[in-house]
Amino acid sequence: xxxxxxxxxxxxxxxxxxxxxxxxxxxxxxxxxxxxxxxxxxxxxxxxxxxxxxxxxxxxxxxxxxxxxxxxxxxxxxxxxxxxxxxxxxxxxxxxxxxxxxxxxxxxxxxxxxxxxxxxxxxxxxxxxxxxxxxxxxxxxxxxxxxxxxxxxxxxxxxxxxxxxxxxxxxxxxxxxxxxxxxxxxxxxxxxxxxxxxxxxxxxxxxxxxxxxxxxxxxxxxxxxxxxxxxxxxxxxxxx
Length: 240
What we know:
Blueprint: E1 4-9, E2 14-19, H1 27-35, E3 43-47, H2 53-61, E4 66-71, H3 74-86, E5 93-97, E6 112-117, H4 133-139, H5 146-156, E7 157-168, H6 172-181, E8 184-193, E9 200-209, E10 216-217, E11 221-222, H7 232-238
Parallel strand pairs: 3-4, 3-6, 4-5, 6-7, 8-10, 8-11
Antiparallel strand pairs: 1-2, 7-9, 8-9
């Protein structure tokens, strides 16, 4: 059995178990779960849910929603289910074991109004592939690429449905172009920097299926102060 760590968030109100070695979620997932704005009663679909961090954080912050997490790696989907049960959210979160590229609306009783994803972001053949297969699949486009993620999101969404994604800023042009070409029109964009003096590291974009052109660029989000402490914005995302 793989050793697990037990990480607490929101002043200890939720716990997330994840492998001590292998794929571990990062601040990217925390940021994305904070930026998503579901309406009461909506069902949210998380593509590539890993250990269930985004569904659990969304369900904690928005008690009147349901969330479906899809994960291709069985060890992670099993762990996601354990985390859902441990946080007493089994009545609001469902984990589906499936390759998202084969996912259909019938699998989730969809289509839905809201899809989110923190997908693999490194192109196949770019950079060193992590020796740990779990991390490799989560970070490199080994099982699915950006276009397939976007096509899945479009397939799962109602017309005018919203799509949220977080991605490396160096691939912003790739992301915006691919979203538009697949019918997910970019509507809001947030650049995410490690520190105020640093270049952007990540970009978060919300798009709508079949939306009209028109992109609003919001204020930048900074992760750390110069001394390495989290900024007030990030501290707020990690507190209840």
